[in-house]
Amino acid sequence: MELTAFSWTNSISPSFHFPRKFSSTRGCKGVRICCVGGNIDVVDSNKADEMTVSITGATGFIGKRLVQKLHADNHRVRVLTRSRTKAQSIFPAKNFPGIVIAEESEWRNCIQGSTAVVNLAGMPISTRWSPEIKKEIKNSRIRVTSKVVDLINDSQDELRPKVLVSATAVGYYGTSETRVFDEQSPSGRDYLAEVCREWEATALKANGNVRLALIRIGVVLGKDGGALAKMIPLFNMFAGGPLGSGKQWFSWIHVDDLVNLIYEALSNPTYNGVINGTAPNPVRLSEMCDQLGSVLGRPSWLPVPDIALKAVLGEGACVVLEGQKVLPTRAKELGFPFKYPYVKDALKTIVS
């Protein structure tokens, strides 16, 4: 249960402006307390540019990349997991010295004393939806977010994290082939929009002195995971093509840009409230498939009809058959430098 936002496509997120007070910090000062192997270790973190970051969903596609970046930049990382064994296999001590891996019973000691918390956990949605699966898609996000918020709020003032970066998804806006959405747009009315509203509302219960950034994530592109892990094998077998009509919007972001956006939100006090985690130039799915086929040297000629997807995924087929055109208005206002603003350049980098 350690994947971000919505694996594959649709994300959810509300665009309301809430009357909460956002505070900020670029680092933590004084003495911070972190857990090491279930014990408590006192760490002096007087350097303003050093952070201690606790992360849920750290073993997922996005979380792994974020942990790698934070560790490479000499920040302290606390991996909040439900499976110590899985986390240890992904972050072996010899390659990640100093990283703390904590199961749920140890989360409190890790969050207390952290500079910031990043919340990326949630069950993938690219599966056949039964009533039980739909319930778990929502509950997996609400439960972990609620636990993280409660632990933050229960912390003593001097030990409370100053920043919470919490994932949500562009599914918040609902779907449309004609409308354009940004952070000011209202929420949609479908199931995924409902999930996102409740997901974000839970994060908004964090202490008012904690700076909160809600990242509404689109379709994440990168090596070894995300949407392309499902698409590239089909194209390599000359069986790639658009899903459904191909007219649905594909609001994407390169994983490096998303990780950099989250990283910036951790340390930059101007990053607060809702921020769309999408590239500046969304495309129709047909164009995305054409570009991917071109980069791979494979044709994009075999569309997958709606009826076939619905037979396999049931109601869950809406995740790939419907989309939304989402623009990162807030990130652009903040001056965030997208490394990959165009999908063709992103794909070339990924498959090279």
What descriptors fit this protein?
alpha/beta; two-stranded antiparallel ribbon; 12 helices; 15 strands; 35% helix; globular; disordered N terminus
Structure description:
The chain has helices at residues 61-72, 84-90, 107-111, 131-153, 191-203, 226-236, 255-267, 285-296, 306-313, 318-321, 329-333, 343-351; strands spanning 31-36, 39-44, 52-56, 76-80, 100-102, 116-119, 163-169, 180-181, 211-217, 219-221, 249-250, 252-254, 273-277, 283-284, 325-326. By secondary structure, it is an alpha/beta fold. Helix 1 (61-72) packs across helix 7, helix 4 (131-153) packs parallel to helix 5 and helix 8 (285-296) runs parallel beside helix 12 (343-351). It is globular and about 60 Å long.
